[in-house]
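ok new one. same drill as before - structure tokens go in, u give me an amino acid for every spot. 102 of them this time. try not to just spam alanines like last time pls lmao
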């Protein structure tokens, strides 16, 4: 199968990522790479496995985002706690909902 990234038959190794990171062309979910929906990154953190894996964006998966509390912090896509200020995205959402009720 032709690789989405290099357009060759590399077997899913062209990005130079670890085998557990880059999706192999024989993976049953490989079709997601060609789905046409690409997520746009808004924040980047060195060392974050989601920020450093281009396939998350290519598959249209949720990406890391800025913190609602401190506005500049990094919130991983698989968590709701800001790496910088420790604020909980859920708690911030609850505060916003309470403010809307008033």
């Amino acid at each position: 199968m032709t690789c989405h990234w290099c357009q060759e038959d590399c077997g899913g190794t062209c990005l130079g990522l670890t085998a557990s990171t880059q999706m192999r062309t024989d993976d049953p979910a490989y079709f997601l790479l060609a789905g046409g929906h690409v997520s746009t990154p808004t924040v980047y953190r060195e060392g974050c496995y989601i920020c450093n894996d281009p396939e998350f964006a290519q598959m249209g998966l949720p990406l890391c985002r800025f913190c609602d509390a401190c506005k500049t912090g990094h919130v991983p896509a698989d968590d709701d706690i800001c790496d910088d200020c420790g604020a909980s995205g859920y708690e911030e959402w609850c505060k916003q909902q309470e403010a809307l009720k008033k």
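Residues 37-101 form one domain. and btw The first strand starts at residue 65 and ends at 66.
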